[in-house]
Specification:
Distance between the termini: 36 Å
Shape: globular
Strand content: 25-35%
Helix content: 25-40%
Number of helices: 8
Strand order of the largest sheet: 10-9-8-11-12-13-14
Radius of gyration: 20 Å
Length: 313
């Protein structure tokens, strides 16, 4: 006789409330109630306003900096653990601090490893996330990790655009694997940008490997932060004779003067998911929701069903 399926409950961290509401609606249950008390010095305390004893709890929240977002997730995981939840799944549409996945110079932390350990220590028994900055971050966890790909969202959209002479591009060498995967699915050519940085978010040199003349180019990346790389790559490709350049990036961090750069660049449009809520509107930024993808995977996890069909690349 199979074990009974625990009652699922979905809760949201504050920064992901809109996405979590949409996920809960697609899942088929109401979003759980959480109240957060805040002290005058900025310290805060989340509280579940319903029982979670014996339940499968999903806590949804992207952990992009600032660190309050991560801290809120950790506190909610700890609260669920201490309230005797049976299973506690941290749903991280965007896994923050992921760019620090190795020591690239002496005396620096490996923040992605540290965050993984903190999530597990706080009480997470499973992790669901999407488009990690580096695939090997999955190995930083001792608990199961479901690493979803936004390609399940982007590929159907790209096919609907029906672009002639389509070419997929990677804005840097590190994203070449992702670009090749998209090009294989879309049966298109690939070009790669080679860049050198002076320091974080500052590019000193960029060169193009491949031909974009007469092509409609789609840049593919996992995140867009200051948009410096994307806009510089788009401008370079248009100079080399591309018909159009658009970009798809899973996580719209869009910090600093990113929106201004996008508006003033030769990018036709930037297509992103709602893993991180946009800080402002832009006529060039189009948002595709990832709510159905996460809801489907969470339903499968709750019923102990395979989710392999969600891994397109």
């Amino acid at each position: 006789m199979s074990a009974p399926i625990p009652e699922p409950k979905i809760f949201a961290c504050k920064q992901s409330e809109t996405l979590a509401t949409n996920i809960a609606e697609a899942f088929g249950i109401p979003l759980g109630k959480v109240i957060t008390s805040t002290y005058s010095d900025g310290e805060f305390q989340p509280s579940f306003e319903e029982s979670v004893r014996g339940s499968r709890v999903f806590i949804i929240g992207s952990t992009h900096p600032n660190s309050d977002h991560l801290m809120e997730m950790l506190l909610m995981l700890d609260a669920a653990k201490r309230a005797s939840a049976r299973h506690i799944t941290a749903v991280l549409p965007y896994f923050g601090w992921a760019r620090q996945d190795r020591k690239d110079k002496p005396r620096v932390p490996i923040a992605a490893k540290l965050v993984a350990k903190m999530l597990e220590t706080a009480g997470a028994t499973r992790i669901i996330t999407m488009d990690l900055h580096a695939d090997q971050i999955q190995g930083f966890f001792e608990k199961p990790v479901d690493h979803l790909f936004a390609s399940t969202i982007f590929l159907p959209h790209l096919r609907k655009l029906n672009l002639d002479n389509l070419t997929i591009a990677s804005p840097d060498m590190g994203g070449s694997k992702r670009a090749y995967a998209y090009s294989k699915a879309l049966e298109s050519d690939v070009v790669i940008c080679y860049k050198q940085r002076e320091k974080a978010n500052v590019i000193s040199h960029m060169a193009l490997i491949g031909d974009v003349k007469g092509k409609n180019v789609v840049l593919v990346d996992d995140m867009v932060d200051t948009a410096g790389t994307l806009t510089k790559a788009a401008d370079l490709m248009m100079e080399r004779g591309a018909l159009s350049v658009r970009a798809i990036c899973t996580h719209p961090i869009l910090s600093g003067n990113a929106y201004e750069r996008i508006e003033n660049s030769k990018l036709e449009e930037l297509i992103v998911t709602d893993s991180i809520p946009l800080s402002q509107e832009s006529k060039k930024v189009k948002v595709l929701t990832c709510a159905s993808l996460f809801a489907d995977v969470m339903l499968s996890v709750n019923h102990n069903k395979s989710i392999s069909s969600k891994f397109l690349m």
